[in-house]
Amino acid sequence: MQTNDTYQCITDAIIEQLEAGTKPWIRPWRGNSRGSLIPRRASGEAYRGINVLMLWLSGQLSGYDENTWMTYRQAAEHGGQVRKGEKGTLVVKYGTFTPKEREDDEQTIPYLRGYTVFNVEQIDNLPDYFTAPVEPVIAAPVPVDDRAERFIEMTGAAVTYTGTQACYRPALDDILIPARERFHDEVHLYSTIFHEIGHWSGVKHRLDRDLSGRFGSAAYAAEELVAEMSAAFVCADLGIAHDPRDNTASYIDSWLKILKADKRAIVTAAAKAQAVADYLQSLVGGDRVEAA
């Protein structure tokens, strides 16, 4: 598959869902007994960046509870068989190469190479350890999630509960979050906090992203997209739901304009969101945080 075709295929899939009013990075559930909602390879290694979005989208549309994916060959190596008629999902491998004519100047060219994977629910005869029982539905929302609270504390971000608007203030390097009772539930609360922490990560002395965009500009929309996806990634890795609820049709329209203008935009945004998630994990000292 050619690089341009891969970019376009990914972008078209995301655009289709945004136009239908669905944001593929929204995770409206808590996950199975393994905790994390980040998609995994057969080896247990986590997918990253745009592949997380593509697998979330495929799993959401197909109704899969499991988050492990593998190629046809990997399924066979584990004694499994992809069921006849099952449709695979596109994921990509990132890489760079140096053309022979440029070997002297050491310039490299990035590429995406697409390949197909299947969810373990599409595969028969796999060992039992590839599946896990789904947690029972929680009857009532829990107002405080100890793991999320511990993660927030360990990032070092200054979060103050006050006022009626959630925002990151670059000049003061702090985050304002409305009082807890103003949120619909703990899902709305933590999705909002991690969104603002995403912005917090972008200042010059952290990840140095462009935070200067005005509301309505392409730069503003791009940063909002990074912050929302990074919140989805962090929530998923903590095994908690993600649904900010506050993104209006105007946000979706602004994202659609970006994606339609640049087929690489969603891949770039997902990579930056992954960088945010990685950075926050580095601050808390690992890929798992237990409640204090």
Name a few traits of the molecule.
292 residues; alpha+beta; three-stranded antiparallel β-sheet; three-stranded mixed β-sheet; 8 strands; single-stranded DNA binding; Antirestriction protein ArdC
Written account of the structure:
The chain is an alpha+beta fold. It has one domain (3-284). It is built from eight helices and eight strands; from the N terminus they run ααβαββββαβββαααα. It has helices at residues 3-19, 50-62, 72-77, 146-155, 186-200, 218-238, 249-261, 265-284; strands at residues 69-70, 81-82, 89-97, 109-119, 123-124, 159-161, 167-169, 174-177. A three-stranded antiparallel sheet has the order 1-4-3. Strands 6-8-7 form a three-stranded mixed sheet, with helices on one face. Strands 2-5 form a two-stranded antiparallel ribbon. The chain is globular and about 55 Å long. The relative contact order is 0.16. The model is unreliable at 29-33 and 137-142 (pLDDT under 50). It comes from Rhizobium wenxiniae. One of its GO terms (molecular function) is single-stranded DNA binding. Residues 5-118 form the N-terminal domain. InterPro entries: Antirestriction_ArdC, ArdC_N, MPTase-PolyVal.
